[in-house]
Design goal:
Blueprint: H1 12-32, H2 45-64
Length: 65
């Protein structure tokens, strides 16, 4: 399923939270049930949970230089 560029333009937070995250979570559920995927975006549960550990050092690097 491809979306028109007008649907994914604008505030990136809105696009991620309202469009891509629900699609990714649905695809993760399909994958766990061994159903065929209907979209390319799939949530990576282990990566998502661990990525918060990098947030502090990355922000420090970017903000503090």
């Amino acid at each position: 399923m491809e979306l028109p560029s007008t649907d994914v333009s604008g505030d990136p937070t809105r696009v991620i939270n309202q469009i891509w995250r629900p699609i990714a979570e649905e695809q993760q559920q399909r994958q766990s049930k061994n159903l065929p995927l209907t979209h390319r975006v799939v949530r990576l549960p282990h990566l998502s949970r661990r990525s918060f550990r990098l947030l502090g050092p990355l922000q420090g690097l970017i903000v503090d230089g």
